[in-house]
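Notes from the 1:1 (GR / supervisor)

We went over the backlog. Supervisor wanted to see one worked example end to end before approving the batch request, so GR pasted a single chain during the call. The sequence is below; no edits were made to it. Supervisor asked that the structure be written out right there so they could see what the output format looks like.
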Amino acid sequence: MLLIPAEGPDKMNADFSIQRATAGDVPEVAVLVGELLAEIMAAINDQVFHFDLNETTDRLADFLDRDKYFVFIARSNDGAAAGFISLYESYALYAEGKFGTISELYVRPGYRANELGRCLVSQAKSFGASRDWTRLEVTTPPLPQFDRTLAFYGREGFTVSGGRKMKATL
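Structure output shown during the call:
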């Protein structure tokens, strides 16, 4: 568990902890995922995600149970979920072996002045190093609406490594 003391005039008067999520955290993390997706869709004014809380809860429980998906949840000292980061392990020749990908990172708006995003990314980097990952990758939401997100990752040491993320529905 990582403890993060709040400090400074615009910090909330709280301490935070970051812990690896367990089955008991699944319902709260699923709600946070829904909040993240709703925020992205509102910013870009497009319904690009289908979100069903029950399906997401079941899927997350399965992913965690199979140890294929790693989630760290940040909580305030009163136990409230403040944010989370999720990761998965991949393999690629271009990455020289195993690497991690941040699939979601979200901090509730009321907690964003507390540097929790930075702390969650730091936790992800430490976790990746413990698993001998060669790198950590992330895809940001669409620009220009998420310029601040791109700048955040730049401050955390991420550099542009390729073009746009694309998908084909199967």
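Supervisor's comment: The longest strand covers residues 81-92.
Batch request approved.
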